[in-house]
Every structure is written in structure tokens, then in C-alpha cells.
């Protein structure tokens, strides 16, 4: 055992010219190198290093700005060398803000490191502005660099201009600069680069490059290998689209994303006339007001014979646009088509259904299109889309007769996912679907927000053909206890892993019959939100011993109270439980105490106890838990734990994996915030929500400076 000694005394002299500080303090041999400090408020300030002791005076080396910067530089060098040494593969480096906060000096050191074999470098997220980008761009040794990710760094056009002048990274093939505010000038600077002749993938999304930026990029003739270009959310408008369409150099372009760019019909017409992009396989023009005229122009394109994925969602297509698309006979490789929210209505669905060219179509999204029963009937008669595996018709106007027509379809034998949520089928539609025997590959069925009632659920539960069904969503089906009983008696869906029957008022009796099910041995996710279970329902539910794979359970808004929490905590079967939502259940401090004593949920990683009136005592009980060592997210919003509760939580030493903590609306006061800032165990904490606690930034400034929370920044502490 060693003992640390300390002495105190007064300063007798400070020699600025020699960089020395003299003091009258007794010292002993071996104490050289000790820190000399003084206290200023609550802070301890080191001002020198002890170097000499004598009978008449003692002396230390004064820590000046120059010496401080030298020490800080040595620390940075050591940190960087240690990080690189511990990296498993120095060919592929991913240095985020959470690993090292790269300032200008760090970047300078990095560029001088022996990394001649570096091929992939990701510096997201960091704060690489124009000055730091200049340092990075001056590197000449990473000649093998092929992938560079600088997403969300705030480069601005100055930083982008510096990067574009680099002529050493001749093998660069992938560059991600999304969300950097490079604007038009930054795009122009990039376009002038002639060194990155191997560039194949460029992401400039959400950069406000405007039409001028797109025009500049379109004039680039060096990136002849460019195959993927992402310009989402850049407001390039008509002029930008027209300029891009005139490009003839990117003959290898296969993926182009122009979504959310305020492109109108004339821009679509210009794009459609492009004959150079013969390898184009994926085109995203969603969230542009192309209108029917623009869609018609696109449909007349005959050059994009390799087009396989087309996203035209929310483009104002209407039935006229749908008709034009349906008549296209060139896109024979089309496999995925998204026409979500286009108001194509009955007429549009009918003409699409007559298409015979898209024999490879596997995914079709027609959700929110005002398609009625007749439109769905027409779609059901299509016999050409034999490879269709995913069909989304949610939130349309199809009634029970449409459901019957779909159920009678025998062509879509590969159908694996069907979404009919929000359609007014009523109780007759579900029984019709249940009689289908062709969809033997069906894995996901969404019937949310539909008035299924008991009869509909009963018939669904009788289905024995969908033996591969793994996900069933029946949220807000209005089927209550009897419906739950019917579902629980199903023995065919042995592969069922996800079941959502939230908002169905199944009550305690419904929970009881569900718990008696022994067939769903693969069930991993169960959502019973707002079902009026009460503590009796939870008591029945925890009796189940078959769902040993259950990993996610939502019991929020069920008024289970402290007794329900007590019953739940006694469960020993759900050893794989990783996510538990008990919000809005009034479990109180006693309920929190019971939960905290659970020792079976060793895999629990996400726990939501928001709005439960846990109070300071509940927070203290939770903080004493030592079993949930894998806990990464904890939500205690609106529990009024106050300063005492915050202090108790801060003393927790078991949740070393905690990354997100929500303590909003808890009246923790400045004292509670200060206590939290002293925690030394949550070394992985990256997000802390202290909003609605009436705290000022000045009161919590120490939180972001906690040296143990290396992943957290001021931006990740919410006080709103």
C-alpha cells in the first residue's frame, strides 16, 4: 500500500522570466514531479510542478501557456498513437468525436502518421471546418485512400474547396460529404477537381448547392467512373435538373437520387431525354412536384433499359401519370416501384393493373392513393407480376369486396409482405383474406387501424396456410377479449416472432388466454400497449413459460400499478428480455423498487419508466440495481425524482453501458444536475435529456466537461 502526502503553505515569489515559483512548504526527497495547486471556488487549479527542495526555500516549474501547450501536445500525440495502436485494422480507420475530438493539431498529427496503406477513413462525426479541412487536404501520403467519409462536419464551401485541391488521393472512389453546408460554391470547387478519376460514389445530399451547384457538377468530365450520385434535398430546381440531364460523361451512372429538390415537370422532361445514362438502375425523384406531365415524360424514356428501382412517391402523379407509367414497355427490369401518396385513385390503379411488361416487379407501394374497391379488384386480376413479393395498399379506400378479390388472387405466390392497414374492410374483409391458400410465403401481414371485430380476428386465426408468418400487426382492431382468445388458439403460426395487438382493450382476461399459448415459441416482440390489462392482466401474462425468446415487450398505458410491477418483476422465464416499456402505468416508488430487485433480465438494454410517479425513492431503488449491467437506455421522464433522486442515480456504478438517459420533467434542480456531473461510471453516456427541469446552461456547464463521459458533448445535453 502507498500513501499520498500533501502539504500546504504560501507562495514567496514568482519569477516569470525564469519560469519558477518559490514557496515555503516542507518537502521530502522523492516528491519532485508533484503538482502544485490552489483552489478557486470548487475548482482545483494546477499551476506548477515541484522540482527542488532546500532548507531555505522550495521551488517548482511554473506552468505557463507555452509549457501547457507543449504538455497538451504530448498528450495528444500519445492519445493518437494509442488509438492507432489499438485499432484492429489500420487500413480502415473510423475516428468519431466519441473516440478522439480532432482539432487542428490532432489532424496535423494524423496526416503525418505512418498510414501509407490507409484505404478507408471515416471522420464522422467530428467538427472539421475550413481550417481543419485544409490540414487534412495537405496530406500526400495516403495514396491508397479509396473511401473518405466527412459527413456532417460543417466543412462549408471553404473546407470543400481545400479538399478539392488535393491531387494525391488518386484512388479515391467513395466520397461522403452530406450535410456539410457546402452550398453552390463548394459544389463548384468539387466539380473542378481533375485528380479523382476513380471516383465512383459521391454523396452531396442536404448541402444547399442549388441550381448553380448542379450546373457546375454537370460540367465535370473527369469522373468518368461515377456510378452513384446522391443530391437529395439540395433545392436544385428546374435549372439544376436540366443541367444534369445534359451531362454525357457519367456513362457508368447507375444510381441517382434527386429527391426533395423542387423539380417540376420541365425538369422531369429534361431528365427523360437523357440518353447517356444507359446503366441507370435506380432513380429517386420522390418529393418533387413533377405532376402528371412530368411523369408522362419520364414514362416515354426508352434509354434506361436497366432501370430496376424507381421512386416517384409524393410527386403529384395522379391517374394520368399512372396511366403513362403503365404503358411503358422499356423498363422490363423494373423490380421496385414506389407511387405512395399520388392520388392515382381508381382509374390509376386500373391502368397499372393492365401492365404486362414489368414481369420482374417484386415490390409495389401504392399506399395513400385513394384507391377504392374497384381499383383493388383490378390489381388482383393482374397475372403478369408473378414475382411480386411486397405489396403496400395501406390507407386507401378499399372495402371488403376488394379484400375478397385480393384473397382470390392465385398469381402472387411469392407474396411475403402485405400491408392493408387503414382500409375500411370492416369485419367481412378479414375472413375473406383468411381463406387465401396461395400466399404460402407470406411472412408479414399488416392490418392496423381496421375494424376487424371478433369475427374478423376469429377467421384470421383459423388460417393454416400462412405457416411462414413471422410478423402480424393488428393494432386498433377493436376485437377485445374474444379476439385475443381466438388468436391465442392458433397453432399454425409457429414462426410468429412479432405480434402487435395494441389498442384493442383485451383486458385481463385477454392477457390470460394469450399467456396460455404454447405454439409461438419464437415470439420475440409483443406489443400490448393500452389494453386495460391492469395488475391482474400482468399477473396472468407472467405465468407464460413458452415465450423464452421474448426480447421486446410493450405494456405501456395499462394501469398496472405497483402490484403489476411486482408481478412482472417476479418473472424468471423471459431471460432474453432486452426492451421493456412500462411508461404511464402509475407504478410509483413501490413498483420501481420491485422492478429493481429483478435479477433475471440480465440482457435488459432499454427500459422506459416515464410518467410513473416513481419519485426520489423509486429512483434510489433503481440506482441500487446491480443486475442490469447491459442497460444502455433509461427513460425516467416525468417521475419527479427531484434532486435526491438525481443524486441517487449519480451514485450508480453498474450501468457502465448506459448511453441514453432521459431525466426530463423531474424537478432535479441545480443540485441534482451537479451530482449527475460527478458520476464516473457511465463512460458510454452520449445523450442526456434534462429538459423541462428549469435549468439554465450556466447551472449545468460542468456536465459536458465530465472527463468520464467521453462520448457526450454540449449538443447532446438537452435543456429545452
Can you give a write-up of this model?
- Helix 5 packs parallel to helix 6 (210-218), helix 7 runs parallel beside helix 8 (265-272) and helix 16 packs parallel to helix 17 (507-515).
- The model has no long low-confidence stretch (mean pLDDT 90).
- With 720 residues, this protein is α/β, with parallel strands linked by helices.
- Helix 19 links the parallel strand 23 (552-554) and strand 24.
- The strands form two sheets. It has a 24-stranded parallel β-sheet, with no helix packed on it.
- Among the domains are: 11-63, no CATH class; 74-263, Ribonuclease Inhibitor (Leucine-rich repeat, LRR (right-handed beta-alpha superhelix)).
- Helix content is 30%, strand content 14%.
- The radius of gyration is 32 Å and the shape is flat.
- The two termini are 48 Å apart.
Number of strands: 29
Largest sheet: 24 strands, parallel
- Stated plainly, the CATH topology of the domain at 74-263 is called Leucine-rich repeat, LRR (right-handed beta-alpha superhelix)
CATH architecture of the domain at 74-263: Alpha-Beta Horseshoe
CATH class of the domain at 74-263: Alpha Beta
- The overall pLDDT, averaged over residues, is 90
The share of residues in extended strands comes to 5-15%
Fraction of residues in helices? Answer: 25-40%
Give the oligomeric state of the chains in this entry, treating copies of one chain as homo and distinct chains as hetero. Answer: single chain
The end-to-end span amounts to: 48 Å
The radius of gyration over CA amounts to: 32 Å
Low-confidence regions = none
- How large is the count of helical segments? 23
